[in-house]
Structures are given as C-alpha cells and as structure tokens.
Fold these 2 entries.
Entry 1:
Amino acid sequence: MIINMRIIELNESTKNNILENLLKRSPNQYREYEDQVAGIISDVKKRGDEALFEYSLRFDKATITKETIRVTEEEIAKAYEQIPPSTLDVIRKSIHNIEAYHQKQKQYSWFDSEPNGVILGQKVTAIDAVGVYVPGGKAAYPSSVLMNVLPAKVAGVRRIAMTTPPGADGNVNPGTLVAAKEAGVTEIYKVGGAQAIAALAYGTDSIKKVDKIVGPGNIYVALAKKAVYGNVSIDSIAGPSEILVIADETANPRFVAADLLSQAEHDELASSILITTSESLAKKVSDEIDGFLEVLNRSEIIRASLDNYGYILVAKNLSEAIDTANEIASEHLEIMTKNAFEVMTKIKNAGAIFIGEYSSEPLGDYFAGPNHVLPTNGTAKFFSPLSVDDFIKKSSIISYSREALFPVYEDIVTFAKAEGLTAHANSISVRFENDEV
Ligand code: NAD
C-alpha cells in the first residue's frame, strides 16, 4: 500500500495551515457528548452502584454485581498464570526504571528558622486517595497502569483505586491486573466510562470517593473528568498522540520513518511530522514509510492518520525547523541531527525530548523511566508530563513568637485597616493590648 506522504516546503503559510489543522484534534471539539456524560454522572450520583451495574450491562455487555465489582485476590492470582513470564519480567524491569526516575522528582518539606523566633516553611503531603482510570475496551494498557500508578506510589499516596471496564465475560485483561498488582494498586474495580469517573468522584456503596482522578480514556472518560473537576482534582485531558522529528542530512531515513509510524498506528487522529533541512532525506523517509507499511499490522489506521495529520516539511535551515517545532509544541519530539544536544537547548515546548538516533519514542513509552503521560495538542506550552508533583500538595507553615511579632504588629494592623478589615487588625492588636514584650 503506497501512501506517498506529502512533502511540503515549510513557510509561514504552510506552517499556519498545519497548526490550524492540528487543532481540529482537540477533545474540545466533541461537545455533543457533554449532555450524555452529564446524564450518566447525575444518575450515578443518585442511584450509586445500581447505575454502575446498568451501564456496565448496556455499554460493556457485562453483568456486574456488588459481589463481583471488586477484583479479588484469586482473580489476580489467575491473571499471573495467564500472562507469559516474559511479560511479567519486562513489567518488573520497567517498574524498576520508572520508580528510580520518579524518586528523583520527590519534593521534601522544608523549615527556615530565624534567631528572633520566626519559623517559616512548606510541608509536603501526599494526596490521600487517588483513582486511576485504565482504558479497557479495545486493547490492554499495562504500561498506562505503571505510568499513572507509580508516581502516586512514589509520592506516598495511601489509597490507589483503579477502575477499568470488564469484557463481556465480566473479566479484566490479565496484563492490566498483573501490572496493577506489581505497581501497588490497593483496589481494582470492574467499571469503565463516564460512570467509573462519577463513582470515583462522588463515591457509591462499593467504590469510596477519591481526591484525584488520573488516566487516559475515550471521549466519555475525558468529558466526565472535565465535568467532575472541582469536586476532585484531575490530571490533564489527553488528546490524540503526536510525534515531531527534527532531522538533518545525517539522520538515518529508516529510523525516522519507523518512528513516525510508531505514533501513526495509535489512531486516525494521531499526528506524525518530520521537519528536515534535507530534501533528499525527506524523499528517502517517504519511500521508507511505504516500505514499512507492507509489513506493519495496523496499516489502515496508519494510512488514515498520515493522510489526516502526517507531514514531511522541508525547512530552509535548522533554526526555522526549531522555531516551528516550538510553535507546534509536540507531545514527543525527536532530534536526529548533528549536535543534537545543542538543538535540545533551543527547544522550549515539547512533552518529552528524545535525543540521538537510538532514542526512539517507544523507549519512553515503556521502559526508560520518564512518564509517558505527556501534554498533547500544543499544551506542552504550559503543561508538564505527569509526575510525582501531581500527587502531592503543599501547606505553608508560619510560626512567630511574641518577640518576633511585637516589632511588626503595628505594620500588620495598618495593612488590615487599609483594607477596611478591622477584625483582622483586632486579632493582631489584641495580643498586645497590655503592651510591652
Ligand atoms: P475506554 O475504557 O476509554 O472506554 C470504554 C468505556 O466507554 C465503556 O466502558 C463504556 O462505559 C464507555 N462507552 C462506550 N460507548 C459508549 C456510549 N455509546 N455511550 C456512553 N459510554 C460509552 O476504552 P476505549 O474506548 O478502548 O478507549 C481507550 C482510549 O484511551 C483510546 O482513545 C486510546 O487512544 C486512549 N489511550 C490513551 C493513552 C495515553 O497515554 N494517552 C493510553 C492508552 C489509551
């Protein structure tokens, strides 16, 4: 199957057309589902478990009851028997790398004390209970379990409740169960979609409410997370996957083509873009893509994705390539050029940056250690990858002795009065109504 990927000269006008086209992929384009999602959420709030069981039957064709909604230790033990030992082995190796990387992100409480009796500080506390949504439906995502659960565990979250839709037989994918057990999930529930998000946000008899919900899912899941935000915290809303490769004439066209295809296979809305300073590389990459398509499984999805959002752009020079990459702010950015680390220093906006020709994107999806939950759709301009920070919160610490407060109390009274808040002023001055220290 030949695709003949578009090779386009990069200029202001082609860049603007591409930026506009990419924005069509935003989850904000799916407002028509909002009413349905709001209906499911209010039904779960009203009828609790009964609503969950009904929706599981309707959408997942699964009969779930109070007795079967929570995955048992026996089911988990059976899952270990169902997966190949090599899968368990790689799950454990990945956990090792992901934990080691996230340990480095940990933040600690700090306290500063002055000799005059002022103590100021910041206390770091893990969020108490987190819900992790793991998509079920069409595929299994053990890597998604690890990437969402492990930062929470490293942060010190006490309760990690996972929900995932069951198959029609009422079972959950064994790879998902094993990954959850290995990562330290404390409870697993068989429920998917907007109803799962509602249960985590408001609680039912079977599923206790959590404080924060993370994890990817389809449009029903994404809109439900948006709808419950405020009652609980959420991570960002993930859009379709994307890759941008910056390459010069030194890049290996086979590697570049393979990496573009690795994202295109996700779904029809995924975006794969090459920006190169070499017209000859552009042509070679296009040919390699056609060659690979003969042997890859998901060629229909890849063809649609490349047709919709795939581009090979030829830039006048490296600095034009870098500026455009910064404007697109891709989820994944690969640099395959001379002096790739120097190019990296000029990248301002990207979810994850892969440097050099042996750092292909799936290395980050599964194994290297950094989180694969990344900002999409240009949001790398202001969002960061999922991290330990998403599972902690901070409290400010303030302690003044009488000796520390006395010399400054009139300043504070003056400020409070300037705002017309006499009770504020009073709560300071009352402490010195009998004056001296
Ligand atoms: P899912 O678990 O997200 O959705 C399945 C649920 O959707 C069902 O349980 C059902 O409750 C609900 N649903 C289905 N049809 C419905 C309808 N007509 N009305 C109301 N609710 C309905 O699984 P999925 O559908 O396979 O989607 C998985 C998504 O997650 C994909 O879009 C995939 O790309 C994405 N994903 C993203 C990442 C990432 O890291 N960004 C990782 C893995 C998966």
Entry 2:
Amino acid sequence: STKIERHLYDVVVIGAGGAGLRAAIEARLAGKRTAIISKSLFGKAHTVMAEGGAAAAMGNVNSNDNWMVHFRDTMRGGKFLNNFRMAELHAKEAPERIWELETYGALFDRTKDGKISQRNFGGHEYPRLAHVGDRTGLELIRTLQQKIVSLQQEDFAETGSYESRIRVFQETTITELMLDGDRVAGAFGYYRESGEFLLFETPAVVLATGGVGRSYKVTSNSWEYTGDGHALALRSGATLINMEFLQFHPTGMVWPPSVKGILVTESVRGDGGVLRNSDGKRFMFDYVPDVFRKQYAETEEEGDRWYTDPDNNRRPPELLPRDEVARAINSEVKAGRGSPAGGVFLDVSTRLPAEQIIKRLPSMHHQFKELADVDITKEPMEVGPTCHYVMGGVEVDPDTGAAFGTVQGLFAAGEVSGGMHGSNRLGGNSLSDLLVFGKRAGEHASAYVDTLGVRPKPAKIDVAAAAEVALAPLARSGGENPYTLQQDLQAVMGDLVGIIRRAGELTDALKRLQELKARVANVSADGGRLYNPGWHLALDLRNMLVVSECTAKAALEREESRGGHTREDFPVMSPEWRRVNLVCSLDEAGEVHLERKPVPRMRTELIDLFDRSELAKYMTDEELAEVEAE
Ligand code: FAD
C-alpha cells in the first residue's frame, strides 16, 4: 500500500548523534515541536564510538591553553583551508559546551585537583581532550539522551504527554526532502522494520547524518554512513564544499580480515604508544614535514621526555596530524617494511605498565583480545590506514548552520557539514564541533521558523514521487544486486580515489562511476517491505554514488596535495590552491557540477595570531603583501 503516516513538527532533526541531539535540545528549549530521526537504534551513532575525547581549551592540565592556541592548532591541522569563522567559534565555545554537559550529568575523568582531565592528541599543542577513559562518545550520547528524557518529563508534567514537544523516531530512514518552491516543507522516509512510509511536514530541517565512509571497503564507519545527508542536501538545492578531503585514520586494525578497518584510537599514541616498522625502527622521525619541523622532537629521547615534561621538550612525531601519519605508514608498507598483515606495529606494551594500559585504554585492550587474540599489554598491535571521516560537507553559514545554495530552512551540523576542519580534522575536534554547531543549528532553525508567515507545504505530487522512487527497487525484478553494486563502488573508491591519487586513475574512477550510475538506476531488491536490508541498501546506493562523484570530481580538479587529499602527480601544497574551495551542486537532470569559490579571508586580529614566517608557508606573495600592509 502507499499509506503514508503524517506528522507535523516545527523542526525535524535528521540524525541522533551528538550534533542531532544537541540541535534537538536547543530547538525544544526554544519552544519548538521537535522530531529526532535516526536510521539506526536510538543511541547507536558514530558519536557513541568516539573514544579519545572532546577538544576544548579549558586549560585544566596546562594553564597556557586558551581559545587562540586551539584556533591556531585547528587552522594548522586543516592546512589553513578551514572556514576561519567556524574554527574561531569552535575554539571559543567548546569549553562552555563541555561544562554545560556536566550540568546535564556528564561525568568526565578528573585531574588530581578535581578538574575535568584533558589528554594529549595529535596536532594539539596542550593536553586538551576532555575524556572518559576511552569511551568518551558513550558518555556524551548518554548525557544528551538523559537531557532529552528530562525535557520530556517536564513536558509530561505540563501536557500529560512525554512526546508532546520532542519525539524520537528510531530505525527510520529519510530518503527525500520536500520543498515548497525553494523552502523546505518536509521530509519523507520509511520505518525500517515495517517498510511503511512517513511524511514529516516541517518548515525546518537540521541535517546531522554524519559521514560517508561506507563507500570505502576499509573503513572505521558502520553500515549507516552512506552520505545520506550530503545527498539530501544536494538534491534540495544546497551545495557541498571540499568533498575531496577525506580523513584516512592512520591506525585501523589490519588483522584478522573480517575486522579490517576497525579503529584503533589515537589515544594509544597520545598515551605513549609508538609506531615501528618491520626493522623495529621508529620511522615517524623520517616523515616530519617542513611546516611542522619546529614543533616536533628530532630524537627519540626528546620525544620520550615530552610525555613527562612537555614544557621543555617537543612532542614525538607519532603525534603529527593524522594525514601525515597515514601517508607515512602507507609509504613504509609500500617500501616493504610493513608488518606480516600489511600494516605497521603500534606498541604500547613496552611503554606503559600493564595496569595503566588496562585503565587508560580499556576498550582497546578488550577489542584486540576479543577480535585478534592480541594482548596489547604484552605485544604490539598491527595497524594501517582506514577511511574515517569526511572533512567536506554541506556548505553552511558559519554562525547559523544554514545551508548555502538555493534552499531555505535547511541547516546542517556535525560531520555532514563542511568547512570547519579545512583539509584535515584534528582528533577530538569532532566531538566539540558537534556540540558547538549542533547548538547553533538548533537555535537558528528555531529562529528561522519564527520568521515564517504562511508555512510551506509539501506538494502531493512530490510526496507521490518520493514514494515511487522508494518502491522502485521492489517493483523491479532481475535487476542489479545492491550488495554487488556496493562492492563495486567500494572497489572504485578504494582503488582509484583512495589515500594516494593520480589524474589518470581519477578520470577512470569518474568513468566507472557513470557506469555504476546506470546500473544503480536498475537496482532491484528481492522480498517485500518488512525489514528488508537489501531494499534499504538499494535506496542508499544512489546517495553513495552522487557523493562519491563529488569526491572524485573535486579530487581530480584540485591539483595539489593538502591534508586529506594527496596527489602523487602534484605532491606539494600550493598557496594558490589554498585560496580555493571546490563547491559541488546538482542540476535538475541529476548532473554533478563543480565550481571554484574563494576561501573567505581571515580577519586581521586572527591573522595576527600567527608568525609571519608561518603564514609564508601557506600564503601567496600577494596575500602576504596584503597582510604586511595592514
Ligand atoms: P553521527 O554520530 O555519525 O550520527 C549520525 C546520525 O544520523 C545517526 O543517528 C544515523 O542513524 C543518522 N542518519 C544517517 N542517515 C540517516 C537517514 N537517511 N535518515 C535518518 N537518520 C540518518 N571524534 C572525536 O572528536 N574524538 C574521538 O575520539 C573520535 N573517535 C571516533 C571513533 C570512531 C570509531 C569513529 C567512527 C569516529 C570517531 N570520531 C571521533 C569522529 C566522530 O565520532 C564523528 O565524526 C561524530 O560522532 C559525528 O557525529 P554526528 O553527530 O555528526 O553524526
């Protein structure tokens, strides 16, 4: 049947990770009737898997830390391509958002004098990650959910219904946004269990759908990360920026094959773990790029001293930003100095006493014991790069999270949005990003609703079309198998648009993506609408495909290497390219278009936070002359 359940809301938040929950709390606090939708079970999002912590310059462990230092680290990590305003807001507001979580009931690990403890992480000058062992994301989600429940209890006391102002729809996938002219009018989707359709009539949608990792075979991402939010944004007239920048986390498990890609937290290195090749050499000392040379130790002795005396020593190169470490591991393996399973060795067993390892890295200890039969208190782990995070995403207004492009009423926050992290995200900066920009998106979506006179309405014909598109794979028989298509897509992306890229391969990738597009148009799913994962994947494929096309197109266009985009044929960073954002849009016929747009220019007082000699590594002569003139 094409029965469609209807719901009316002021704000619909798609995604129940940190960004979505924080946005929903804010919308509800602004008095808006708010729905939260999640594709998986409520509570199961990437946010829950985050291990290391949330970066915020609270200065609890080193009082030299402040927002300006955090801002600088974030811009350096992103190789100065970040939207400076987002990096500024993030650095300034992250501490407040962490302290606020405590008022919601979060219990962070403590320093000896009772402050929120902060740990070291790659690219962060001072210990900065607020954490709960290596299960920080779990605490973050637990706390946000608890806050939502407490708001629902308040609503119950007032209205007699827990769900009168905030309601969670779990295991519900949104497949299409509805527009009225250029304005958001609703969201269409299905319950995964029953396959029945629902329509949310709403003037404001906050996208908080997370990443795109499932387009790669070796990934730390779980099944639901198929770039849905990115694709929903594109199809509704919004734009994506810098989709060429993907973060390959340097340390994923490489063995056994069934778990290849699962994340090994950077905390292992933050807490003293070192990387060695098959010769036993700490090879990262050979891979410190010029731009970072001043900040990193040149000898093992200095690096080791840093763990206990960070003020008088420089950090070990194992703690370089992730893109640098991932490329170094890739090179060692290619040069024949890899581990038996094709990674390198990550060793914490010779660096910390067993009981410390178990206390500080309980999940890692458990993960390796259970999955690989490796005791990390006694032996090294084998690790290699894994597709982890997408820096690119929905192009948004930095202050409000409103999507750019032609659409109104669409907001985005968290991993699905772009700009904040430039060409490479620092570890720990995502959890704080979710809170800072989740709150802002919720607030501004609510404010947008207040400006409306007559509310936009979804058109019947659009709703019928969305239902027809959703049912098409079931109606077809003998078409392409969705699982085969996903494997083929993953092969194209992994082999041709992976960690090291070349023009010829990218051109080839684009050709193959066109072929896949035709095949995906003919995808069919066996069985009916009752809990049917093959059907669900069939619907996700078109999202994966359009997002992958943006990535491949932008990767071919950007003729330089920067952060999460490495071109073997253009191995250096180009000051000219630093000034360019690549913006992806979709036309009526479903064709992807790419456009160059200037990167917004940093305000003078922010530029002044950097040494001229450092700026000279990133900027063109013309820009430097402008800076000098000010
Ligand atoms: P997510 O938490 O990814 O949630 C997305 C939500 O959207 C989910 O609820 C999903 O079901 C829903 N959704 C998606 N598509 C649809 C759809 N079509 N319809 C309805 N719902 C949909 N970052 C750090 O800062 N520190 C860390 O220590 C850290 N560790 C990590 C460890 C792992 C293993 C992974 C995978 C990531 C880690 N990250 C870390 C990154 C960080 O966890 C993520 O970037 C972040 O959690 C993303 O949050 P989000 O709110 O944007 O989305």
